[in-house]
Each structure stands twice: as C-alpha cells, then as structure tokens.
Amino acid sequence: MLETIKSYLPDHTSAFFYLVIALFVIAILYFNDMFSNMNTYRGYDAKKQIGYGYEASNGPNMWKHAYVDAAGRQQSPINLLTHCTITVPSELQSLKFSEEFSENPREMLAYNNGLNVVLYAKWCNNRRPNITMNCVVYNFLNIRFRWGPTDNEGSEHMVDTTRFAIEMQVAFIKNNSGCDILEAARNKDLLMVSYFFMATSVDNPYLEPIVKSLKMLKCPLSCASICPFPLKLLTPIFSKNYFSYEGSLTFPPCTEGVKWIVQPEPLLISSRQASKFRKLIGGCNCTRISSNSRPVQKTNEREIFFYD
Ligand SMILES: *[C@@H]1O[C@H](CO)[C@@H](O)[C@H](O)[C@H]1NC(C)=O
Ligand SMILES: *[C@@H]1O[C@H](CO)[C@@H](O)[C@H](O)[C@H]1NC(C)=O
Ligand SMILES: CC(=O)N[C@H]1CO[C@H](CO)[C@@H](O)[C@@H]1O
C-alpha cells in the first residue's frame, strides 16, 4: 500500500512525508494549547472561585486585584437611600410571581458551599416558580443567605444606611440560560430578588426548617435535605413597594448587568436563629463563617427606582 502511494509521489517523498508529520505535530500542539487555554480559563475561574473569601487577605477589598469587574462602576450591593430614588408607580413595571411559589416542592436541599448556605428545590414535573417582569420570564434557581458578625451587620444592601441581620438573595434566570449563576450573569440573564431579616427575640417558624438543617451543615461542602415547604412562606410575594436597580454579582467575578429587586420591608428572625448561621465552618482555613457579605459599593451615576 505504502509502496503504491510512494510510486505516485515525486523523489523528495520523504521530505514531503516529514513535512506532513511536522504539520500534524504543529496542529496537535496548536489545538492542544488552545484546549489547555480553555481549560486554564475555566480552571482559573474555578480556582478563583475557591480562592476568594471574606478575610483581610482574600476579602472584598482584594477582589479588584483578581477580578476586573469588581472595580466596575455598577457594582452591588449599594446603600439604597430613599431620598435619592426615583419613585415610580408600580403599574409601570409588572412583577408577577407564578403559582409554583405556593406549591410544595418535591425536595429541598441546603448546602454549605464553604462561603454561605445555598438552598435548592425541585418541584414535580420539572415545574419551577417563575417571575414575570415586564413580559420577561425568570425561573427560580436558588437562594443564598448572607450574614455578618453581629445582628446589625449581616445584610449586603443597606436601606437608608441600615443593615439587617441577614439578607436572603433569590436568584432567577431567564429560561434559556442553563442553571449556572455565573453564566447567567455573563449573559445578563440574571434577576436577583433580595429580602432582609431583622433580628428580634422571637423565632421565625418559617425559617426553622432551615435553621434546624444548619446543624448538619457545619462542615464545608456538606448538604442536608429539608422538609419541603412552599417557597412563598420564605419569600413573600409582592408586586409593589420595592427597589429596583442595575448592579452586579456581590461575589467574584462580580459580573455586572444583574437586575436587582430589593424588598425593603424586613422579615423577622430571632437572634438565636441568626447566630446559628455564624456557627457554620468554611473558608480555606476551616474557620467559622462569621461574615460573607460584601460592603456597599458606590452608586455612581446609576438610577435607583422605587416602585410605589
Ligand atoms: C411560569 O409560570 C407559569 C405559571 O405557573 C407557567 O404557566 C409558565 O409556563 C411558566 N413560564 C416558564 C417560562 O416556565
Ligand atoms: C489561613 O491561615 C494561614 C496560616 O495561619 C494564613 O497565613 C492565611 O492568611 C489564612 N488565610 C485566610 C484566608 O485567612
Ligand atoms: C417557555 C419555555 O421556553 N420553557 C422551557 C424552559 O426550559 C425547560 C427546560 O429546558 C423547557 O422544558 C421549557 O419548555
């Protein structure tokens, strides 16, 4: 066979042969490099994901050195100052929570990702709660809890310079955006709906299933199933009296283009319940997660709306 081919080739066959081999090797090296670049890109992201934290050495003040977006002009969270907002009649932005908010999920799962607690849920027949905002549908993704060292410094957003014990951030993504919050943020398909919990002396019974599960979530990367309950018990449904603005992820890579809706009317949590969140262990040194909230960022030239 080879002989037959050779017979068709001119005299400098072997040179030609080596040239083909060389091109082949170059091509392999080139594509290999391209793939490994892609992997490094992913790995880089993933490593940074694990690499950031809330300590002095890897905390919010350091993020801008590793993530360009963190130095942007449309960052979250912000201090929502009532006297600086544009008040708009709520009819001008339709906000509709779907009926799945009232339905019991099939399963609910809480996860300690080493930095905060994330709550996941699954409904029957692949149904998911959704929010329709001005005819755009956003599907429920997950819920993150943010807290701080004391009951007065947990929330990321502030309302008129007040911080609350805990901020609960519910992530919604446009249907076509998969189920990755970073990807959704990159595609500008992410809607975050935030609720505050103000510390009191009385337990909030709706939070109890989550607070109970925290005992099993002490160690980083542990998860616990939660007895399912309708989401609206945790995330009350509303269509007016809320802030709305354009911001970013509040954690690296701090991607901008995230729509934020912040419900300023705080829900209640007891100090006892709030303290259980601070007992969780995480971070790269396996210490207590005493804070996982980013300080407020400059509002800059952004317009903050209040839908009345
Ligand atoms: C949103 O929820 C409504 C009501 O449950 C449902 O009819 C609709 O199909 C959902 N939309 C999407 C895009 O999932
Ligand atoms: C983890 O511990 C090491 C050694 O004590 C320290 O140098 C490092 O800064 C700590 N990292 C964080 C994020 O606190
Ligand atoms: C309205 C719409 O596009 N719904 C789709 C959302 O995504 C799920 C899963 O990918 C599809 O099954 C729905 O048809």
From TrEMBL:
Keyword hit for Lipoprotein: no
Keyword Transmembrane belongs to the record: yes
One Gene Ontology cellular component: cytoplasm
Boundaries of every Alpha-carbonic anhydrase domain copy: 50-308
One Pfam family in the UniProt entry: Carb_anhydrase
Transmembrane feature ranges: 15-32
Keyword set, alphabetical order: Membrane, Transmembrane, Transmembrane helix
InterPro entries assigned to the protein according to its UniProt record, in alphabetical order: CA_dom, CA_dom_sf, Carbonic_anhydrase_a-class
Family: Belongs to the alpha-carbonic anhydrase family.
Protein name per Swiss-Prot or TrEMBL: Alpha-carbonic anhydrase domain-containing protein
